[in-house]
Design a protein that fits this description.
Largest sheet: 6 strands, mixed
Order of helices and strands: EHEEEHEE
Number of strands: 6
Distance between the termini: 25 Å
Number of domains: 1
Radius of gyration: 15 Å
Structural class: alpha+beta
Strand order of the largest sheet: 2-3-4-1-5-6
Number of helices: 2
Shape: globular
Mean pLDDT: 82
């Protein structure tokens, strides 16, 4: 793991199951963000609900037939023993447990990606119902 990482987690589903996701996010993810945030600087003002945001925070998004939330943090010190990382991982794991492949009533999906400083330091996790909305693209600039 690199010293700093960029992290994105998508949680989404079809329009008809979005109210279930919204409730889950309000009860689980938003409280974690308000207490911890991944960079220890997040507060309630960083919980944003605008479409298409490219900065840190929680954003509402729509793509194709899906509606969901994108949680983004850039330049995070990603060490498993940090309390904010443990809290984030607990929320991510809880989502995967609640909306697993056996729970077909709510086909909600989660995709997580972390990119560290080193070229080979990429972590990608997705849930059963994910459709591959996240991908990595690295550019060489000069």
């Amino acid at each position: 793991m690199g010293y700093r990482s960029d992290v994105v987690m998508l949680m989404y589903g079809k329009e008809e199951v979005f109210p279930i996701l919204k409730l889950w996010v309000e009860e689980n993810l938003i409280p974690m963000i308000k207490v911890h945030g991944l960079d220890n600087t997040l507060g309630g003002n960083r919980v944003l609900f605008d479409d298409g945001g490219n900065t840190d925070g929680l954003w509402l998004f729509t793509r194709d037939n899906y509606k969901g939330y994108a949680y983004k943090e850039f330049g995070v010190k990603w060490y498993p023993d940090y309390p904010e990382i443990r809290a984030f991982e607990a929320v991510r794991e809880k989502f995967a447990e609640v909306f697993n492949r056996d729970n077909h009533a709510a086909e909600l999906a989660m995709e997580f990606m972390r990119i560290g400083e080193e070229p080979d330091d990429i972590e990608s996790v997705d849930s059963f119902h994910s459709v591959g909305l996240l991908s990595v693209q690295r550019d060489i600039v000069y």
